[in-house]
Design a protein that fits this description.
This protein is mainly beta and 112 residues long.
């Protein structure tokens, strides 16, 4: 039997999906900006913190979920991408907020 996950889940899919992960219907629209990594480079065992500004560009309040994905381009057998953090924020029309996502050392590994 072939137990490989290649071409079987979004983590290993290399094409363009018809509906990307996180796609959904909403009356709200959001823009992201001012991405910051802390620290800019990490050492083994450190936690990565990602901060990003989220802006509600619509005329209605809404919830947005910021998602942190990692790619492992040089790891044979590793997924193409892996969800490693998320943060939900509720924003009024025109409101901005800074979202923080944290990925601890085990979550930064390709198998974690």
């Amino acid at each position: 039997m072939n137990y490989s996950m290649q071409k079987r889940t979004y983590r290993y899919f290399t094409g363009t999906p018809l509906y990307p992960f996180g796609y959904g219907l909403s009356y709200s629209t959001f823009e992201y900006g001012n991405l910051k990594l802390s620290p800019p480079q990490i050492q083994a065992g450190e936690t990565l913190t990602v901060q990003v500004d989220v802006h509600n560009t619509s005329k209605v309040a809404g919830d947005e979920v910021a998602e942190l994905y990692l790619e492992f381009p040089t790891r044979i057998g590793a997924p193409a991408r892996a969800l490693r953090g998320l943060a939900r924020v509720h924003l009024a029309p025109g409101e901005n907020a800074a979202s923080k996502l944290h990925a601890s050392a085990p979550r930064l590994e390709h198998g974690g």
